[in-house]
Write a structure and sequence with these properties.
Elements: H1 2-40, H2 49-62, H3 72-89, H4 93-98, H5 100-126, H6 130-140, H7 146-155, H8 159-187, H9 195-223, H10 230-250, H11 255-273, H12 277-304, H13 308-313, H14 315-344, H15 350-358, H16 364-371, H17 380-400, H18 402-409, H19 415-444, H20 449-476, H21 479-505, H22 517-524
């Protein structure tokens, strides 16, 4: 009898696994299909693909088609680490160091302003409970500008704005998660608010996260010096993203801060001393795919999880929360921006601050925090509904109006022009290499000389045409000269760093040398004019 029960249990478990896999494959097919169509169809390219996925998810929710149950653990443990790691991997330390003061102010004091503003506003205007106000404030303190940053990159918006927004979001998420964990005990009534204790716990959370992230990041950086295996090194970065998060959480630290620290170290240090240029490119492309893959799934699932009845029941509170979040975001960005400009001459323009204010979207992290509220809290459903409502407004209204705002402020970049110029320069490089090869064949006489001479004439004709096109573009758009010089500077700096890394791997150097050309070339290469 017991054997029969065991067989039945095993069969049921197999069916459950099969059903779960079917659901996952369905989600994967829908999400990647929508994301692909958004890039393939011209008129859909004006909508960030993450927002398009959210709209599809909302459509499925309206039809009551639920793809899969979305738990907070699914976002925090599966989706969040790779998104954080990819963002940190691609942020240049030099840019982050330059704007460290405004990023720190926005990430730390911005969270305090957001939580405090929502606490006071929701309590006094909406009349919600203390627990609701605290946890809504902590959940909505986490910004998620994935869609806006993707739009920035596509449109060629000033890189500094992208760095400020990404840098704030990276560290802001960690601070918001820590704040949520601290405030959850207060909301449940199991802890008392004590400023010194709260600050001490915050520093411990962050300290553990930075320590774990630093150990893993530097450890892998020196480990990858020992070999050159692109697939292994790629796999190690994936293990690092998840392993760092889990280790830090097990040690009662901030997994978010740990992943960000590891990503920054590996992206700016480890990839230079432990990876050759080809491996670095392979790893970067891998993480670009991972970010696309994860975003394609998570935004569809967020839209699919919306419960419209809860939104309607809490509509008044949601509208109040939206007004408050816009207001406190303005106080945070413009107030802290003024302080930053005054203290460090950060020179963040007024137009740039407007974009940072409007681009402070809420997304997956806010939703995950709201869903992680224990069922024991009576106001849990209200908290989830309010956070979902505000998140939908920021993604759909603010996210879809960011491009018109950039156009109005005159901050749209010249990415299409730069891309066209880069392509034509690439053609010149390729034709010169072909010409060099043909001239080598002429010298060695490996092929028929008459045929070779004819090919040389054809290639030179094409090269002349390409050169004329480049000259015409430079004459019509003088700013391209500065762009070309900046590209050359970046190439020279990369050659210097790669040379040091090659010498370290060969055992001729024992430690990484500080870049010498960084200070030399900056003075000689004109800066690209800011938007």
């Amino acid at each position: 009898m017991m054997g029969f029960v065991g067989v039945v249990d095993a069969a049921m478990e197999t069916l459950a696994i099969e059903a779960g896999l079917r659901q996952f494959l369905l989600v994967l097919s829908v999400s990647l299909g929508v994301a692909t169509l958004s890039r393939a169809i011209a008129w859909l390219r004006n909508i960030p693909y993450t927002l398009l996925l959210l709209l599809v998810g909302l459509g499925l929710a309206i039809l009551d088609v639920r793809l899969i149950n979305l738990s907070p653990e699914l976002i925090l443990f599966i989706f969040l680490p790779p998104l954080l790691f990819e963002a940190a991997w691609n942020i240049p330390w030099s840019a982050l160091k330059r704007d460290r003061l405004p990023i720190a102010l926005y990430a730390v004091l911005g969270v305090v302003i957001c939580v405090g503003g929502l606490l006071v506003g929701l309590r006094s205007v909406a009349g919600v409970s203390l627990a609701t106000a605290l946890l809504v404030g902590a959940s909505l303190a986490a910004t998620d500008p994935v869609s806006v940053v993707a739009l920035f990159r596509e449109l060629g918006v000033d890189k500094r704005l992208t760095t400020l927004m990404e840098g704030e979001s990276l560290f802001n998420d960690g601070v918001a998660v820590v704040a949520f964990n601290l405030l959850l005990g207060l909301a449940l009534g199991i802890e008392q608010f004590d400023i010194p204790v709260t600050i001490a716990r915050f520093l411990v959370f962050v300290g553990i996260g930075v320590s774990v992230g630093g150990l893993v990041g530097f450890g892998l950086s020196f480990l990858t010096q020992r070999f050159d295996l692109p697939l292994v090194e790629q796999s190690l970065t994936l293990v690092a993203a998840y392993g760092t998060y889990l280790i830090a959480e097990e040690l009662q630290g901030s997994g978010v801060i740990a992943v960000v620290t590891t990503g920054l170290i590996l992206g700016n240090f480890g990839s230079r001393i432990g990876m050759n240029p080809r491996t670095r490119l392979v790893v970067s492309e891998f993480w670009e795919f991972v970010a696309f893959f994860v975003n394609s799934i998570v935004f569809l699932l967020i839209g699919d999880q919306v419960v419209f009845d809860g939104l309607l029941e809490n509509l008044d509170t949601i509208l109040i929360a939206i007004a408050i979040i816009i207001g406190v975001r303005a106080i945070s960005i413009f107030g802290l921006g003024f302080v930053s400009n005054w203290l460090s001459n950060a020179d963040i323009s007024g137009r740039g601050q407007v974009v940072l204010w409007w681009g402070g979207l809420r997304g997956s992290v806010s939703v995950a925090l709201a869903l992680s509220v224990p069922n024991a809290l009576a106001e849990r459903d209200d908290i989830i509904a309010i956070v979902f409502g505000v998140m939908l407004f920021t993604l759909l209204v603010q996210g879809l109006t960011t491009k018109p705002l950039l156009e109005t402020l005159g901050l749209l970049g010249d990415q299409p022009l730069r891309q066209a110029y880069t392509q034509i320069v690439a053609r010149r490089i390729a034709l010169n290499r072909v010409l060099n090869r043909l001239q080598q064949l002429q010298t060695t006489q490996e092929v028929d000389p008459e045929f070779c001479n004819y090919q040389v004439v054809l290639v030179k004709d094409q090269l002349d045409i390409v050169q004329q096109e480049i000259a015409a573009m430079q004459q019509q758009h003088p700013e391209l000269q500065a762009f070309a010089l900046q590209q050359l500077k970046d190439e020279l700096l990369a050659i210097e760093a790669d040379t040091y890394a090659e010498l370290i791997r060969a055992g001729q150097l024992k430690e990484e040398l500080a870049p010498l050309l960084q200070s030399v070339l900056v003075e000689d290469v004109p800066e690209i004019a800011e938007s």
